Amino acid sequence: MTEVLLLDVDGVRPDASREDAGLDSLAVVELSMVLSQRHGIEITDDELLELDTVAEIVALMEQRTAGV
Hints:
By secondary structure, the protein is mainly α. The chain has helices at about 1-5, 25-40, 45-50, 55-65.
């Protein structure tokens, strides 16, 4: 995620908020597309915007991956 979205590695921690991790609304849209195209994980940008922390995003990714 940090390489594709060009995020600061130090900012991407489980307890970091989306904003602290550098995930503004444009980055969230890009993350949604990357997850779908590269990893087959379908999570909409609206779903990602509802989540508060990096840990919540990872949990949803794991949940969707388990369902594949």
